[in-house]
Write a structure and sequence with these properties.
By secondary structure, the protein is mainly beta. It has a single domain, classed as Beta Barrel (Porin), CATH 2.40.160. The chain is built from one helix and 14 strands; from the N terminus they run H-E-E-E-E-E-E-E-E-E-E-E-E-E-E. It is globular, with a radius of gyration of 18 Å. The chain starts with a helix and ends with a strand.
Length: about 280
């Protein structure tokens, strides 16, 4: 693996760890390689004081400004050159200036097996197809029906696939989609995550992304308890990864919500460090 491609792969690992519950940035399609382990520690903050009830954007004094702090640990291990095992663990704290009680707890564990089922080299690059069955499940019985809820409190079975085109100079374009089976009140979802990135020199990798979540059903806020609402959004963001040594780098990213349904108009950022073994 060339230096520029390795840098892009590490940046993808870092940005995945940055996502947490607020960002949901997609998979970039890179694998770690047999015997390689990446571990990322991150902190993220997202805030909003406006939100959509249905598709109507509002603000309310009783809600005020919502802040969510998230600490995450992400790991990815290469079982083979074509199969990775990944896991993310998050602790989330949510607070409101409108007087709602602060909620903080370990949130969800997300794990996935990522298998590169296809790789086809062409002049100037290569196309890869990565299948990623996964599971998201709560670690604690946290509050899931409040303004300051830290998650939806239920298990998702994720059936996802990522198509990636990687140019020989280290530039890449990746699209992740699939179908998330939600096992409780929230209806199933279809994610769409588009990521483009590349490496400048040997050490700096820049990425930009667009994320869209499409819900297959549910009701608007006010028509039932929070976990069952139809939540959708479109978000854009950008990230950067700088590798100081072969085994350590730092990552930062930021994002904003363009439009949504029954969700906050959130803007946020993440910072973290990545260790590679």
């Amino acid at each position: 693996m060339s230096q520029s491609i390795r840098s892009a792969a590490l940046a993808a690992a870092a940005c995945t760890a940055m996502s947490g519950p607020a960002l949901a940035q997609g998979d970039s399609g890179f694998l770690r390689g047999k015997g390689n382990l990446d571990v990322a520690l991150s902190y993220s903050l997202d805030t909003y004081d406006e939100f959509w009830v249905g598709r109507t954007k509002v603000s309310m004094p009783m809600v005020g400004r919502i802040k969510r702090h998230t600490g995450s640990v992400y790991g990815a291990y290469g079982l083979t050159d074509d199969i990775d095992l990944t896991a993310t663990l998050s602790f989330v704290s949510a607070e409101s200036s409108g007087g709602a009680p602060t909620e903080d707890s370990f949130q969800d564990l997300t794990a996935a097996l990522r298998w590169r089922a296809l790789r086809h080299e062409v002049d100037g690059g290569a196309f890869s197809l990565v299948l990623s069955p996964g599971l998201k499940t709560p670690l604690t019985s946290y509050e899931d029906d409040a303004i300051t809820a830290i998650g939806d409190g239920q298990t998702d079975i994720r059936l996802r696939v990522t198509g990636q085109y990687l140019w020989s100079n280290g530039m890449f374009l990746a699209l992740e989609t699939g179908y998330d089976i939600r096992t409780d009140d929230p209806k199933d979802e279809i994610p769409l995550h588009l990521t483009v990135g590349g490496t400048i020199g040997e050490d700096l990798t820049l990425t930009a992304f667009y994320s869209k979540i499409i819900s297959t059903g549910g009701y608007d806020i006010g028509a039932g308890p929070f976990p069952g609402v139809k939540e959708e959004y479109d978000r854009v963001g950008a990230g950067a990864y700088y590798r100081f040594t072969r085994n350590f780098g730092i990552s930062a990213s930021g994002w904003t919500t363009l439009r949504g349904r029954n969700t906050g108009k959130a803007t946020g950022f993440s910072i973290g460090g990545v260790l590679s073994f």
